[in-house]
Queue: 2 jobs
Job 1
Amino acid sequence: MKSKNHPLLGIHSLLVMIFIYLPIAFIIAYSFNSSRLAADWSGFTFEWYVSLFSNRRVMEALSNTLIVALVSTVFSTLLGTMAAIAIRKVGRRSKAGIGGLLYLPIIIPDIIMGLSLLVLFTQFHIPLGKLTIIIAHITFSISYVYVIVTTRLTGMGGQLEEAAQDLGADAWQTFRHVTLPQIMPGIISGAIIAFTMSLDDFMVSFFVSGPSSTTLPIYIYGQVKRGISPEINALCTLLILVSVTLIFLAQFVLNRGKGQKKRSVLPF
Amino acid sequence: MYLLRIHSILQLIIDVRKRGDKELKKMKWAGLALAAAMVLTVLSGCGSSKETLNIYSWADNFDADVLAAFEKEYDVKINYDVFANNEDLLAKIKAGGSGYDLIQPSDYMVATMIKQDLLAPLNKDNIPNFANIADTYKNPSFDPDNKYSVVYTSGVTGIAYNTKYVKDEIDSWEDLWNPEYKGKVILLDDNREVIGMALKKAGKSNSSTDEGEITAAVEDLKNLLPSVLAFDTDNIKQKMIQEEGWIATVWSGDASVIVKDNPDVAYVVPKEGGTIWSDNYAIPKGAKHQELAEKFINFMLDPENSATNYESIGYSDPNTKAHEFHSEEYNNDKMINLSEDELSRTEWLQDVGDKLQVYDRFWTELKSGRE
Amino acid sequence: MKKSSMGLLPVLLWLSLFLVVPMLIVVGISFMSRDDLGNVVFHFNLDAYATFFDPLYLGIYWDTIVLSIVTTALCLLLSYPLAYYIANAGPKMQTWGLALITVPFWINFLIRTYAWVLLLRTQGVVNNLLLDLGFIQEPLQMLYTKGAVLLGMVYTFIPFMVLPIYVALEQMDKKLLEAASDLGATGWKSFWHITLPQTKSGIMTGSVLVYVSTTGMFVVTDILGGAKSAMISNIIQSQFLGARNWPFGSALSVIFVITSLILIALFNKAMTSRHMTAKEGR
C-alpha cells in the first residue's frame, strides 16, 4: 500500500512522538540513577531493579492493579459497547437523557465518585477491597467505551446493516458479520482507554479500597511524602519493555501464521 | 502469570480479526474462561489462616525488618496500606467499615477524630513500654491523658535556607519577606501552617480564631506572595536540594534529609517560635484486632526495636530509653533531636472549629492570586 | 422499551445503582448545612449555592474553563495530523503508531509528571542544554508557571484526542477522496470539504474527553504550577477534605456537572449543524 502522507505530516508526527517520549526517556534513565531522591545524577546502578523484585508490597500492588484493570476493562467494554449499539434504537428524547447519563461518569469529579461510592458500599456493608475497586472502575470506564464506540457507529451509518437484513440475515447474524467487524476498532480503542484509565486511577480507587487491595497508584501517591523510590522508575521501565515486547511478539506470530498477507495485531 | 493473561487478551483480539464462525465460538469460550479465571483470582487470596494486623499509615513509615520481626514473634501477618494525607484518612475512617486496626493520624487529626468519636480508648496494660516515652510528648494538648493516642514521631516547622545564596543571618519569619529572595521562597502547601506562620510572626497564636488577627496575617502574606516560587509540602525536599528555592518553611525532619544531600542548607527554628506537629498511633473504633494493635505499639516502643526503626526511617525518636542504642550520627543530628530551647518556642495547632472556613476562604484567595 | 434496545438494560441498571443513587445523595447534601465538626446536618438551605457566586469561586471556575478550552485546542492541533498520519500509513505502521502512543500512558501519571519536573527545573536538562548552546545566559524559570501547567495538561490528554480521531479517520470512505482528486480538487480543498466533515464525530468525542478531563484535573496545577493557581477541582477536593464543607463541595460539583453537560450539548449542536452529512441525519 502506497503511503499518501505528506513529508511535513511525517515531521509533525515525529515531533509529537518525541514530545511524548521525552519524559519517558528520563524515567528510564533515572531508573539507573543511584540517588534515592532522584535529585541529581549520581552514578549508574542496577540496585533498584534488584530491590524491586524483593519488595513484596510493590509486587502486591502491581498484581492488584493488573487484576482490577483487566477485569474492569472486560466488563466495561462489554457494557459500553452494548449501550452504544442499543441506544441507536431509542427515541430522540430518551436518547438525549440516556446519552447524558452515559456521559456522567466522565464528568463527575473523581472525588465525588470515590466518596459517594465509599458511602454506598459502607452503607450496604460491602467489604472494601478489590471487588469494590473493580465495580467503581467499571462504572467510569463504561463511559469511555461508550463514547468511542458511538463515534465509530456515527460514521458507519445504517446502510450496510439494512442491506444485510434485506438479504435475509437475522439480527444476530447482522450484528456478528456486519456491525461487530465494522465497529471493532472503536471497541478496541475504547478498551485501551478504559484499561489506561483504570491503570492510572488514584482518587476513586483510594476511597473504595480496603486492607490488602492497595493498587500501584495508591502506593505511589503514598510515597510522594518521602520521595518516590526509584524502584518505581525501574518498574515503569519494565512495564514499557514488556508491553512493547508483547506487541512485537504478537505481531510476529500473526504475520508468520498468516503467510502472504500482512496483518496487524490490533484490528485497526 | 500476568504475562500469560495479557497474552490471552492479545490472542482474543487476534481471534476477532479472523471473524470466522468457528473462531468466534472459540473466542466466546476463551472470553468466558478468561472472565472466570479473573473472578477466581479476585475471590481467592482472601483466605489466610493467620491473624492479620491491618495497619493504615504513611508510606515507608516503618522499617521493614522491624515489621518482619513483629510478624515472627507473634506469628501474625501485617498488612500495611498507605494514605497520603490526614484528610484522606479521616474521610476513610469516618465512612466506617474500613477494616483497619491501627492508624497514624497527626496531632490535630487525633483531636478531630476524638471529637467525632472515631477512636477506641487504648488499653495501657497492653502497652507497658509507654513509660519509655519522653515527658515532652506525654499528655499532649490534643489528647490530654493519652487516652486515645501514643506519639510516634514529631517535628517543628522552621526555616531552611541555602547559605550559598542567603548571606544574612536568618532568625525570624520576617526574613522570608526579604525582597532579595524574590521568586525563591517556597511555602508549605497547607492553610493552617502558612497562615499560622504569619500569625506567629505577628506574635499571635498559630491557631487564632480572631478574624481581625487572621485578616491581618493574610494581608501580610499577600505582600509575600510575589516572592513565592511554589507552594509545596511533599517535594519541598527536592526543590531545596536542587537549589530551585533558596529559603523555605520546612519541617525539621525534612530539613535533616535535605542537609544530607545538600550540606549548604541550614535550618533554624525562628525566634518567634514555630508550629510543632506529631504523628501518632491510634486505633479506630470497631477495629477487629485491637489487642494485637496494642501489642504492636508496645513492640515498637521497645528501646532496641525503636532504635532500629527510627535509625532506618530517619525521624525523631520520642523514646528516651532508645538513646543509647542509636548511632552517634543519629544522636548528633540537630534537626532530629531538637534542643529544649527550640522546643520551648513551639506551639501545637489547635482545632479552630467553624473558623476553619475563614482559613480556607483566605487560603483559596491567596493561592489563586484573586481578591 | 423495544426489544432492540434491550442492550441498554444492563448499563442502565448498573449506572442507576452505582452512579445515580450516589449522585442523588450528593445533590441532597448540597442543600444541607454543616456543623462545626464538618458533619452534614439536615437543614434545608441554599447557602452552598449562594457561596458559589462569590467572585473568588466564579473567577476560579472561569479560569478553569479557559484553560480547558486552550488545552483542548492545542491537543487537537497536535493530534489531528498525527492521527491522520497513522491512519494513512500501512497496517503494520498503524499498529506500531497506536501502540507507541498508548504504551507511555500506562506509566503512572505522577511519575510522568515528575519527569517533566526533572526536565524543566532551573538545573534541569532543558535549561542546561540551552545554556550550553549559548541561547540563554541565565536559566529560565519554566516550572511553576501557567505555561508549565498547560504543557502538562496537553501532554496528559493527547491520547484522548488521537484515538477517537484515528477511529473516525480509519473508517473514512477513501473513494470519496479519490473521486475528488479525479475532479481536480487540491489537497487542502478535499481535506476541508471531505475529510474534515467525515471525521467530525472523532473530533467531537476527542474534544469532549480532553475538555472534561482537563476540568477535572488538579494534580498538574500542584506539581507543575507550584500550586499557585487553583482549578475548580482543587476547590471541590479541598471542600470535601481539608475544609470539611461537604454541602459546598457538593453544590460545586452539581454546578460543575450541569455546566459541563450544557457545554457538551452546545458543542455537539454546533458540530452537527454545520456540514451535516446524510449519514449523520439518522
Note: The longest strand of chain B covers residues 149-162.
Job 2
Amino acid sequence: MIYGCIVAFQASAMAVDCTGQFAVLAGRKVMTLVDLDNPTDRVTKLTRQSKFDISCVQWHPYPVCGDLFATACNQRLDLFSWTSYGNINQKCSMRGHSRTVSDLDWSPFDVNIIASCSVDSYTHLWDIRDPKKPSNSFQTVAGASQVKWNKVTNNLFATTHEGDVRLWDPRKGSSPLQYIAAHLSKIHGLDWSPDSETNFATSSQDGTVKFWDTSNPRQSKGVITSGSPVWRARYTPFGHGLITAVVPQLRRGENSLYLWNLENYVAPVHQFVGHQDVILEFEWRKQAEGLKDYHLVTWSKDQSLRIWKIDQHLQKLCGQDVGEISDSSESDSTSLPYETNGSSPPTNQEMDFQRQMSASPEVYPGQKPRTLEQEFLMVNVAIDNVRVDELDVSTRTCKVTGMIGNNSLKLVISFPNHYPIHGVPFFEFTDILVDNNVMLRLLKVLKDTANRHARRNCLEPLLRQFSTTLDSLSFQTEERITPDTENLPAFSPFYLPYSRGDLPFVKFGSRLDSHIPFPRTSGARFCSAGYLVTFGRSKEAQKGSDYTPKAMSDLNSLVQKNKMRPHQTVPFNFAAYSRSPPTAQPDITIATYYYKSGPKKNRASGKRYSADVREAETKKPNIAPVKIYDSSRLLALHKILGEHYIINQSDISTMCKHNTSVAATVGRKDLVQLWSLVALTADKRLQSSDDPDEGPPWGRHPFGRNLMQSLMEYYIKLRDVQTLAMLCCVFWNGQELMAPPPPKPQQSISVEYSTPPNYNPYHTVSSMSNLVKGLQTLPVANKLADIVSLLSPPLSEVSSHPNLPELIQPTNQGVMKLKRSNSYSGFEIDTIDNDFKLEEDEEDVKERQEQLDKTAHENYCRMLDPVDKNKYDEYLRCYANILDCWGLKNQSREVMKFVSNAPPEHRGIEFSVYCYKCSQPVRGSQCLSCKYPAFNCAICHLGVKGLSNFCLACGHGGHTAHLTEWFKRENECPTGCGCQCLKAKIHISLQ
Amino acid sequence: MVSVINSIDTAHEDMIHDAQLDYYGTKLATCSSDKTIKIFDVKDGQQTLINELQGHDGPVWQLAWAHPMFGNLIASCSYDRKVIIWKETNGTWGKLYEYTNHDSSVNSVIFAPQEFGLVLACGSSDGSISIISSSGDGSWTAKKINNAHSIGCNAVSFAPYVSPGALLDPYNKQTPVKRIVSGGCDNLVKIWREEEGEWKEEKKLEGHSDWVRDVAWAPSIGLPRSTIASCSQDFRVIIWTNDGTGNDWSHKILHKFNDVVWHLSWSITGNILACSGGDNKVSLWKETLEGQWVCISDVNKGQGQVTDKSISS
C-alpha cells in the first residue's frame, strides 16, 4: 500500500492541493512543490530566507483559486501563488498576531476568507482582498492551537485552547457559541466530520481521541484510547473511518498511522508502517476520476513523503460500500504510473525515490498478514539459545545463529517475494558444525513449521521451533528452562497474534504514562510488631537527574537527556511494554534511570572497560538488599516483657514482684518503678470494704485512681501500649463490669412509672437513643439486663429473652418509664404480660436507690475510672494484637480475657410464630395484635409463655413438660396430624 | 535503637518497589519492576526464597499481606492494571482472584482491618478507587469510587478499626464505619466513608501543592484522635489530625525534604512515622511529649547504617 516515498527537504509542513496533483513541502529554507503523480522529476523549489520554521501551510480548497496557498511563519501569514512550474510568487503577507501562528484554515464556503489562530490568544479572520488587517478577531483567555471551519455549514468554526474547544460564529461577535471542555490535556488536533455539521473529533495529549456532537457537548460520543499522545485524528473521505497519528514519546517507537472504523473504538483496522520518524502531516488526495482507490499523502519528520493507497479492501473495512471488489487491486503495484521510474536514477540530488514493497491486503479472518518489514520489526528476538544476527528487508533474509550444546549453527532464512501470501521461506545452513543427521532433522522441522504457517507470518514461530528443536537435540544434560508461554508477557507483540488471534496493538489500550507517578525505588515499612523493612537502591546507584521525576513519562526524556544507553539494546524490540517501563521506548527500565557511579576510570582505557561495566550492569541492577530492622525499642515494645510478664489479678503482689524483675532484665527502669508502685497501690490491705458508710474507698485517694490516671496519661503520650495494657490487666476486668456508670453523688435517683397520656412512638425512639447516650459506655444489652433485674421479679423472665431489643418496641399499653434525674430522660419497656400492672411503691424506690448507691461506691473502689472503659478495651486489644504478631498466642488470649465483651450479635436461625388466633406473624411469645400468647400448646390447648418445643416438620408443639410426657409414650404428633415427630428428629427449643 | 537483624539479597532483575513482612514477621514479600513477587522465609535470620510469583504483565508496584485469619494471602497491584490476590495452600502459591476493572496502572493496594472481613482497597491512575470484598464463598464483589481523584489516585489507606460504640462514633452507630483515605494527582487527600454500602466523600484535605504520593492512616491504640500522614511531590510531609469530635482536620507540616517523598509508614503503635523518598533515604519521626515531631534517626540504606540523632539518652 505504500505508493512511493521521497526523501528530501527540510520541511516542517506539508499540504496537498485541491486537485490532488501537487503537494507543497514548506521548510525553513526552502519551499518545494512536488507533483504527486511524478514525485521524482517534477519539483519546483523556492528558497526563502527565514530563521523561523513554517508552522503550517494550506492550499486553497477551491480550484478557482487553486494556485493559492497560505503559510504561517512565526507571527505572519503569507499567501503564495504559483503560476507555472518553477514560479512561486508571494502575493501578500498578513500581520496581526503578536505570537506564533499555530494554525490556519481556509473557509470552505468563502473563497476569500482564511482563519488563523495563535498562542497570542487571538483568532483572526482575514479577507485576502484586504490583507492589511484582520476582518474579524476573536479573543480568548488561552492561546489557540487549532482553528477549523465546519465542513458542512457556513459561519461556524472551532478553535482549541489547551483541553477546551470553542465554537464560533463570526456573525455573532466576540463570544463563542459553545464551550466544550473536551480533554484534560492539550488538544493537538481537531477535525470536523465531512458529512455532519454537528460532529467533530479531537485528539489530545492525554492519549485519547474523542468524538463530539455539538448538540450534546456535555459528553463525548466515544473515545479511542491510545498509549501515546495523539497528534492528529482526521475523518476519512469514505465510509466511517478515521486516521490517527500518534506522537511516540521522544519521537521514538512507533511512527505509524492507524486507520479506524468508527464502529469500533477498541482496535484499529489497519496500521500504516514505514515512516522512521514522527508523522508531521497527512492529507488526502482528491480522488482521481475513475479510480476507486484513495490516496493518503504523509509527511514525516524523517523527511520522507509517502503516498499510501487505500484500496477497496481497506475502504470496506471502514464501512465504505464498494460493491464488488475488483481484482485490479491485486496488480496495484504495477499500475502505478511511476513504477517504471523507480529504477531510474534520481534526477535530483536531494531526492531519492524508493520503491517499497507492497502487499495487497488479503484479509484472513482473525489475522492480518504483515509485510516482511513489519514482521521484522515486531519479531521478538529474545529467544533462548537462538540469536538473530541480521534482519535484512532489502535482501529479504534473516540470519540466525543457534546454539546446540557448545556448537553453534548458522541458519539463513530467505523469504520469497510474495511471502507471506504465496510461498514459504527457504532455509540454508551456512556454518555447519553438527552432523548431517541433525541438520536434516532441523531442516525438516523448519519446513514443517513453515508449511503449517502458510499464508501467514511465520518468522517468529520458526525461531521458536528452531530453539526448541535445538534444545531437544542438545547433547548436554543440563536442564534448560524453556520459556513458559503462559508466563510470557501478554503484551508482548508476538504473543498476541498467536494467542488471541488479533493484531498486536500495543500502543492503544493503555492510558498515558504521564498520569502514572514515577515509581518508588526506595522505601521503609513498619511491619508486624516492631520490624522495619527497608528497600532501596544500592549506594552506587546515582539518579539520572537532579530531581526525581514526577511521572513515568518523564523517565524517557531524562534518560535521553543524560544520554544513558539502556544496557541491552535489542535492535528490533518493538514491545511497548518491554521489561518494566511502560514508556514508548522499549528497553528503558526504571533501573536505567539510575546509573552506577563507581570509581571513575580513565576513559582512555576504552571499549573493554565499558563492555565490562555494561556486563556488570546487566547482571546486577542497582538494587540494595532488603534489610529488616528491629525497631521495637523505638516503639517501647519489648517482646521479652510480653513473653515473661504474668497476669494474675487474684495475687497482684506476686504478679508485681515478678513483673518488676522482668522489667529489670530489659533495662526499663521506669517500669521497675512502675511495678513497685502498682504493688503498693494494689495492696490487699487497701481493699475497700463493701459498705459505703466506712468512708471513701482507696480509689478516691490521691494515690489511688488519680495516680493511675496520671500514669496512664503519661504512657499514652509515650504510646507504650504494652504498659497501658498491663495496667489495665492489673486494675481492670471488663468481664465483671456489669454495673451502671456511677451517678454523681448529689443526684437523687427516682424511678417513676407512668403511662404517658398522649403517647408518641417517636418519643420512645428518642428516649431510646438518650438511654444509650446516658449509658454511653455500656453495651445496651448488659445495661438492659441490669436495669431489668433491678426492677421487679415478674420482669426477670424478660431478661432471658433472646431478642432483647424486641422488648423495647413501643406499645400503647403498659409503658413503664424510668427516670433518673438528668442522665437520661425516658425509658419505656413493653411489658410482657397483659395483666401485669406496674404500681408505685415507695419501698422499692428506696431499695433501688440504696442499690445504686452501692454500685456507685463499688465503682469508686475501682482504681480505673469505668468511664474510659472503651479505651481500656482498645489498649488491651491493641496489645493482644501485638502479642499475636509476636506469636505469643497464649499471652494474647490471656490479655483478651480482660476485654469487656460486647454482646454477641445474634447469629443463626430465628423462629417466628404465627398466632394461632389471628394468624399474624409474631416474634416473641405474645401476639401483638390480639395480645394472646401466640403459641398454643397442642396438649393443654393453652398459650405457651415459658419453655416450649415444637416439631420442625409439622410445626406443632407446646409446653416442654407436656411434650416430654407425651413423647415418652407416643411417636406421633399429639394433634393427630399424622406427623412422626420423633422420627423427624429435628426439635428445637424455643424460649 | 534500630538494629539490622536481616539483610536479604532479593536477586530481583529490576528495581524493587515494595517489601513487606507478614503479620508474624516471618515471611518477606518483595515486588519489582521485573514483574515478579518473591517470598522469602526470614524467620530467625533465614533468607530462603520460598516462591516467586509470576502473573503480572508489568512492574508490580505494591503489596499487602492479609491478616492471617484469612490464610496466607498477598494482594499485589501492577502497572498492568491488575490487582491479583495470591493465596498459599499447602506451601504452594497460586492466584486466588484477579481484579481487572481498572483502566490504568493500579498504584496502591491495602487490606482493610481484619474486623471488616476480607476487604481490600486499591487506587489507580485512572482516578478511581476500588473496594473489593470477599463474601467468603469464593466470590468477590467490588465497589468502585469513580473519579475519586482527577488525573489519578496514587495511594489508599484504611482507617483503623474502631469498635462500635467506642471512640469516634460513640452514639447511634451500631456498626463500625469503614473509612479510607486516598491521595492523588489533584494534590488532594480525601477521606471516604462507607454509608449503607456506598462510599461517600467525607472530607477533602487541601495542603499539598503537587501530587500526593502516599497517605497513611495511623493505627489507633484507643485514643479518640485520628492521625493521617500524607507526602507529596512537593517534598512535604503533612500530619493531619482530627480530635474525634467533629469532621475538622488540622494540619501540620512535618518537614520539607530535599526530594520527593513517596512513601510513609506508621509503626504499629502509631507514634513513629517512617518517611522515604527520591533521595534513597529513610528518616524516622516521632512525636515528643510536647506534641512536636522530631527526626529521631536516619536509616541510610545504601550503607546499612543507622545514625541516631537524638535517642542516645
Note: The radius of gyration of chain A is 44 Å.
